[in-house]
Structure prediction request, 312 residues.
Amino acid sequence: MAETNGVSTEKDFSDTGNGPFQTGSIHNANGGGTPLLGKEMESGAAMQQIQRSSSIAITPELFEKIYLTPQNNVKGDLRKTFGNPTPLALLGLVMALTPFSCDIMGWRGAGGDGAAATGAYYFMGGLLMIIGGLLEWVLGNTFPFLVFCAYGGFWLSFASTLTPDIGAYGHYSTTYSTSDPSAGLTDSPQFAASFAFWLLAMGFLSLIFAICCLRTNICLAVVEWSLTIVFCLLAGTFWQSAQGSMAVAGKCLIAAGAFGFVASAAGWWILFALALASVDFPVQIPVGDLSHIIKGAAEKQAMKTKSPEHQV
Prediction:
């Protein structure tokens, strides 16, 4: 983590009591000023601001880029104390989703519905996303907490389904045994039809997240809209497989992998942007902030309240 004179350039010092939409210099109770560190500032100018002040108030755009959620005010100084957990959860997502997407597309002869990466689903997709989500909850970031824990739960559930000892699909087969641990996974229409409903529910959940992401940034919106399509296509894959339409099921599976790869690419981009920000790299990459395009309800209400004053 980058520091200058003991002050981290990555941590959030935006809890100033003046609300999430302030600009310029923020004044404290003693008449002093807390500089506002914006994304448009050059690295050198930002360093000079940091050196002259004991705290920094970041812009809503920069806050959204770091935490993947519109800026909010919470009590306490936990954001000043702990590091940003968002990159950890994103790391878990891309390290599970990328190999899964490649597997179901059949690249380089891959196959098996992604079962080869079951360990990655447990300990990267599941564990890292749950940890990151819980830390977001500690920091008061509700939306990232919800998203990361939801997908962390998905990866743990998916990995459990693929684990023979749990026997989720074995209940649908009369030939399931230790000598034939995959029985029921690929040859049971009833299991395929039942499993598709869970994938469809995940698609609906991703759609909710995708709509909410229109208040965050373009890259995260690409991730969520792509995942919405992925889960719907996977549900279609299993339903077509249950009906014996293996050719259609195969095409749906490949299409799901393609959209999963698009989501992975956008996730890698966000992770790269956060990694660069964490070390105050002189070159920063944009993620396409949307928070200033779609205004929040609180911001609209504040604008309506102030509008008569501006008219006078």
